[in-house]
């Protein structure tokens, strides 16, 4: 006859935490930091199509590490919630905090109720008017939320990466400086014998929430623009242009391609110009 | 409700979690309701070399009254397409907002834009969803135009789609117009349109056509020089959608009006 052994709730939670932590630690890391012109996401990612970093709403981005299917599920949920709230109320009423709370509820419920927790760690970032106004929320597998001070690292060896990032990061950095700091932090771990290593540009997924834009602020930085930033090319700093997309899948910075969200376009460019009748 | 694998379509998602937010899902009491809400009127679209132009007058009417002088009926649907609305103004605006979210939502979920035909088909099914209300007089008819990023020849990438209350889409060649003044606008365009127009010429032609519509249709507003209310003119080209500034449309509208001082028939 099968015996039902007693396991204390503490033990169950510890086991689940351990499972989640192990799963997350196996994956490659990601960092998020604010810089002078916005919020920068850099993730180590071998795939150029299975994104770890993506857009949620006008001024809100999402970065995740861990199991792809699990954080992709959360990302879709976030996009749905943001679009629903933005349509019901107004685009300005969709906030990073609201989304972070919703993710926390979902992750917390999964952690306690399901037999296996989500092996993910995610960041919800909202870009503000200045680096001080940016908010970065770290959400872990058990649903806990932390408000991070302008920078954060997630994934395997996150503590070591955070250590490097802390030394390198300043809120008034330029984009090129921020990218180099992020890559330095990511590559500071994982080399032979714990030494630093080099990460190729095609293994990096880089995106920004551009502070100065109205409407949708999320941009991916790929191809020549990215290598320019990594090599310290100052001109690439001013005008990040993508290399990859031929037909723009998601609008990119290339050739001043339109980046307006249709829904928010009505808000754009109105305060300064085109009101001669007033 | 948010985390189900579900679909990439925002309207399909809404139909499950918040069907009351879809215009076609609201029960209407029986009877005609045609004259209870303002009507948005004329929109024209013209395909040009390397893009497409859409323009709309600014008037909304309720019976014989002017409900609004400066309504905006032409909007960007996404970065490369435009949508104009004629018919019941409230439902039209709501459908248009929903359509904008639909396109953006798909783009965010899938990481790629819908094709231009895909967008037109989506809009058709949304209009079809409003069929019940349309049969009671609360019809909404959109005009959809955009720059087709997949077109082989960029000069012919500007495409126009029309719809009826039962859906569509019907692709139009050259130009199209919707709304109460569309008969006159189309007659004017029939004589003046030439294939391969430049975008600037098409903009001028669109304002001329709206003038002709306003000339013969009381529900269409002409350029209002005293209040400085001019048609909304937008373009969609390889550079994306662009709305002409009020100063630009003012210049064009004033030149059209001064041309008509010499020759009222254009």
TrEMBL record, chain A:
GO molecular function terms attached to this record: threonine-type endopeptidase activity
A Gene Ontology biological process term: proteasomal protein catabolic process
Positions of region (Disordered): 232-278
Pathway assignment: Protein degradation; proteasomal Pup-dependent pathway
Regulation of its activity: The formation of the proteasomal ATPase ARC-20S proteasome complex, likely via the docking of the C-termini of ARC into the intersubunit pockets in the alpha-rings, may trigger opening of the gate for substrate entry. Interconversion between the open-gate and close-gate conformations leads to a dynamic regulation of the 20S proteasome proteolysis activity.
KW Cytoplasm (keyword) present: yes
UniProt GO cellular component terms: cytoplasm; proteasome core complex, alpha-subunit complex
Record's compositionally biased regions (Low complexity): 232-243, 268-278
The organism's place on the tree of life at top rank: Bacteria
UniProt keyword Ligase present: no
Family from the record: Belongs to the peptidase T1A family.
PANTHER family attached to this UniProt entry: PROTEASOME SUBUNIT ALPHA/BETA
UniProt name for this protein: Proteasome subunit alpha
Gene name per UniProt: prcA
Automatic annotation (TrEMBL), chain B:
Pathway assigned in UniProt: Protein degradation; proteasomal Pup-dependent pathway
Keywords: Autocatalytic cleavage, Cytoplasm, Hydrolase, Protease, Proteasome, Threonine protease, Zymogen
Active-site feature positions: 41
Entry GO CC: cytoplasm; proteasome core complex, beta-subunit complex
Location of this chain's protein in the cell: Cytoplasm
Enzyme class at the top of the EC tree: hydrolase
Propeptide feature: residues: 1-40
Catalytic function, reaction form: Cleavage of peptide bonds with very broad specificity
Cross-referenced InterPro entries: Ntn_hydrolases_N (IPR029055), Proteasome_sua/b (IPR001353), Proteasome_suB-type (IPR023333), PSB_actinobac (IPR022483)
Name of the protein: Proteasome subunit beta
Organism name: Micromonospora chaiyaphumensis
The encoding gene: prcB
């Amino acid at each position: 006859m099968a015996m039902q052994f007693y396991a204390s709730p503490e033990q169950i939670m510890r086991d689940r935490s351990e499972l989640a932590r192990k799963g997350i630690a196996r994956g490659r890391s990601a960092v998020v930091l604010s810089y002078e012109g916005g919020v920068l996401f850099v993730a180590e990612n071998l795939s150029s199509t299975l994104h770890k970093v993506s857009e949620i709403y006008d001024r809100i981005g999402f970065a995740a590490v861990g199991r792809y299917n699990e954080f992709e599920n959360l990302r879709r949920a976030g996009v749905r919630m943001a679009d629903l709230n933005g349509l019901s109320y107004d685009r300005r009423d969709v906030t990073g905090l609201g989304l972070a709370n919703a993710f926390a509820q979902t992750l917390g419920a999964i952690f306690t109720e399901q037999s296996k927790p989500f092996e993910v760690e995610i960041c919800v970032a909202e870009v503000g008017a200045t680096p001080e106004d940016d908010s970065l929320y770290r959400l872990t597998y058990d649903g806990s939320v932390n408000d991070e001070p302008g920078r954060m690292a997630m994934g395997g060896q996150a503590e070591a990466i955070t250590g490097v990032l802390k030394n390198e990061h300043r809120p008034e950095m330029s984009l090129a400086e921020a990218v180099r700091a992020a890559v330095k932090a990511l590559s500071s771990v994982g080399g032979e014998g714990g030494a630093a290593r080099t990460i190729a540009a095609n293994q990096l997924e880089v995106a920004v929430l551009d502070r100065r834009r109205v409407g949708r602020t999320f941009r991916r930085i790929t191809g020549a623009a990215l290598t320019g930033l990594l090599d310290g090319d100052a001109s690439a700093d001013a005008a990040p242009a993508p290399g990859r997309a031929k037909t723009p899948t998601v609008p990119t910075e290339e050739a001043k391609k339109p980046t307006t969200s249709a829904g928010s376009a009505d808000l754009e460019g109105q305060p300064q110009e085109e009101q001669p009748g007033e | 409700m948010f985390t189900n694998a579900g679909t990439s379509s925002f309207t399909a998602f809404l139909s499950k979690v918040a069907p009351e937010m879809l215009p076609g899902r609201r029960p209407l009491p029986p009877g005609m309701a045609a004259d209870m809400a303002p009507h948005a009127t004329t929109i024209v679209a013209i395909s040009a070399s390397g893009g497409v132009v859409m323009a709309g007058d600014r008037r909304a009417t309720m019976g014989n009254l002017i409900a609004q002088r400066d309504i905006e009926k032409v909007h960007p649907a996404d970065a490369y397409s435009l949508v104009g609305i004629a018919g019941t103004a409230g439902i039209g605006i709501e459908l248009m907002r929903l359509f904008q979210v639909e396109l953006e939502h798909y783009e965010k979920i899938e990481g790629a834009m819908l094709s231009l035909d895909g967008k037109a088909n989506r809009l058709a099914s949304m209009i079809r969803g409003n069929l019940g209300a349309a049969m009671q007089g609360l019809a909404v008819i959109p005009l959809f135009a955009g720059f087709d990023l997949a077109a082989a020849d960029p000069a012919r990438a500007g495409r126009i789609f029309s719809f009826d209350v039962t859906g569509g889409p019907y692709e139009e060649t050259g130009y199209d117009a919707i709304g109460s003044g569309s008969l006159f606008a189309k007659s004017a365009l029939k004589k003046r349109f030439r294939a391969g127009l430049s975008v600037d010429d098409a903009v001028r032609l669109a304002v001329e056509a709206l003038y002709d519509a306003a000339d013969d249709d009381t529900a269409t507003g002409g350029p209002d020089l005293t209040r400085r209310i001019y048609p909304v003119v937008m373009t969609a080209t390889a550079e994306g959608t662009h709305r002409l500034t009020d100063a630009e449309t003012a210049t064009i509208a004033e030149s059209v009006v001064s041309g008509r001082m010499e020759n009222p028939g254009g």
